[in-house]
Amino acid sequence: MEKIEEKIREIAGKLLKDKKVKLIIGFEKGTLPLKARPTFVRKPEEVEKLIWNPFCENNLAVYIPFYRRYLDNGESIGVIAKGCDVRSLVLHIQENIAKREQIFIIGIPCEGILDRKRIEKEAFPGEITEASEKDDKILVKGNGFEKTLKKKDFLCEDCIVCSHRKPVVYDELVEGDVKETEAADRQNQIKEFESKEPDERWKIFTEEVSRCIRCYACRNACPACYCKECFVDCSKPQWLGTTVDSETDLQLFQIIRTFHLAGRCVNCGSCNRACPMDINISLLVNKLSVDAKRLFNYETGIDVNEKPVLNKYSEDDSNEGFFEEH
Amino acid sequence: MKDSLKSIKHIEKDKLSEFIKQLRKDFTVIAPRNVKDFVLFQELKADEEPYLDFLNSRQSPKEYFFPQTENIVEYEGVTDKRVPIVTEKQMRKRIIFGMRPCDVTSLSILDRLFVNEDYVDNYYKRLRDNTLIFGFGCSYPRMTCFCTSFDSGPFSTKGTDVFITDSGDTFIIEGITEQGKKLIEKLLDGDKKLLKTKSEIEKKALDSITTPPNVEKIPEKLKGLFENPVWEVISERCLGCGVCTYLCPTCHCFDIQDEVIDNKGRRVKNWDSCMFPIFTLHGSGHQPREFRFQRMRQRIMHKFNYYDENFDIIACCGCGRCVTECPVNIDVREILRTISEL
């Protein structure tokens, strides 16, 4: 880890000194155990605060649309990006949020992000007041307890099946010996849910979203959710009610959001990590990613020159789901 | 002190369910429940015991006084012939059982807005008047707790009707208000020793809140900071979601909407959040708080300056929920320290 951090600081410092980028988005130490948080570096002397560890849970690409004013001025932004962040950046480039040359990608090979919520539950009903990680272990301490956990048992679900731990596009790659894993098949993540009867699936989904408090943290943590006006916020016309006592509105919010992410979600899991009610937000969209792969052999955010899957048409496209003419 | 001495009782932990059963005869009991290895205040099911082995609930029990969605009026009929549907529902008296002192403090903060000389919000008042508060001492404050920055503390009984302290095998139960005293009359008496135990637990809890930010001078300090560039720094990582405001026990902004389906309609009050891009969006399309820093400034200003000016109290009770649940770890304690140092 220290080596990776040193390298990040070196690259970031040089970029800023050479004025190649206006800003570098990375991670710094958080104020709580198990937390690293996004940080913004503009001066070479500030690069010391940049860190890297498996608690760097946010997808930093989410900030790119906030800096349209920089991009419109032709300026560039550096991003310290793990595998999924890179894919979201590629999506932004494909969708014309930024030009390729305006995003300087400092790629980090990622061994998977640790699931803070699951680790915290190890201490439930108590809390973790200290945490550190080394090699393949996490050490957590709290009031009257101390536990050593194995990292591999606490990886985020999305990271377990991730097939792009190594950044697919980058300007500088921080070296690391990360290998893609055998479990790297998203099909594994949805298998169980998919095998259930429709009624049962509906029950699981509706129970999950019934806890929704409409804080929209899932949407705001998502790099693909950058609409200037989200459909839930639209008042002319109002597509969706704003109450929490209407189950339909809660369900529709998640269903419509899922469809808006079809072929655009990189399965980073930021939505799940952001949700304060521990809802499994990505339950549905993971299925769409599997479908995109199966039907169109498409994975989101791999090639900046490729069109997003729903923007292109080929005569050979699968017709599955279309009604046959009789 | 004398009064509380008189009404100090205790109950053994294994007798708690019997006590709750008694309470349920006359009251709806809302208490902490373990939802999915996190705790929420919800109505207890028959024979269910409250989940009292908790630090604090994920969401505050604010929603029982200021519901996230609340009908103001329901009506039927078409455009020019609307008839209100009047259903005078008798409200059952309620007890919020096991409320932490920070959350109790938040009610005294909200009271000043919703029930004051100039204005009374009948919806809030009705729920408030119909509810007894069973406060629950915080033996183990979280590392993000800073209730002691305000006029409160982990064992502050202020605003409660009954106050519970966990002393190991038993709960020490104090009647604070007359109503509260009456309710616990039937319980076993306590003795003076229990109070000593309580003060020991309290001391330990207080000692564990090590670095509460000093907020005394914050309202005054904020007066000159509206144009300060610090807001852009503080807010840069903010995603603009509503976690902080929706988990906050003192945030109280709402939006009013009309919902009409066929020939029935309702006017409904919903929580709103100053962190959202459509908050304060004018009908003309103009948005006076276009940027995240303006929204963040509003949240901090409202809590620590405007509210203090209007109601002579800071709109924060130090529960730390915004700190623990912010997806990008924006820490209000840190913000307060930054502001103090300016």
Please describe the topology of this protein:
The complex is a heterodimer of chains A (326) and B (342).
Chain A: H1 2-17, E1 23-29, E2 36-41, H2 68-72, E3 77-81, H3 83-94, E4 103-107, H4 116-123, E5 128-134, E6 137-142, E7 145-150, H5 157-160, E8 172-173, H6 186-194, H7 198-209, H8 217-220, H9 247-260, H10 270-274, H11 285-296
Parallel strand pairs in A: 1-3, 3-4, 4-8
Antiparallel strand pairs in A: 1-2, 5-6, 6-7
Helix pairs in contact in A: 6-11
Chain B: H1 2-6, E1 8-12, H2 16-26, E2 28-34, E3 39-43, E4 69-76, E5 83-84, E6 94-99, H3 101-114, H4 122-129, E7 131-136, E8 162-166, E9 170-175, H5 178-184, E10 188-189, H6 192-208, H7 218-222, H8 230-235, H9 243-247, E11 254-261, E12 264-271, H10 292-311, H11 321-325, H12 332-341
Parallel strand pairs in B: 2-6, 6-7, 7-8
Antiparallel strand pairs in B: 1-9, 1-10, 2-3, 4-5, 4-12, 8-9, 11-12
Walk me through the structure.
The complex is a heterodimer of chains A (326) and B (342). With 326 residues, chain A is α/β, with parallel strands linked by helices. In chain A, 31% of the residues lie in helices and 13% in strands. Chain A has 2 domains: 271 residues, no CATH class; 39 residues, no CATH class. In chain A, the strands form 2 sheets. A 5-stranded mixed sheet of chain A has the order 2-1-3-4-8. Helix content of chain B is 33%, strand content 20%. Chain B has 12 helices and 12 strands. In chain B, the strands form 2 sheets. An 8-stranded mixed sheet of chain B has the order 3-2-6-7-8-9-1-10, with helices on both faces. Chain B has a 4-stranded antiparallel sheet with strand order 5-4-12-11, with no helix packed on it. The longest helix of chain B is centred in the last third of the chain and has 20 residues. Chain B is globular. Chains A and B meet through β2, α8 and α10 of A and α9, β11 and α11 of B.
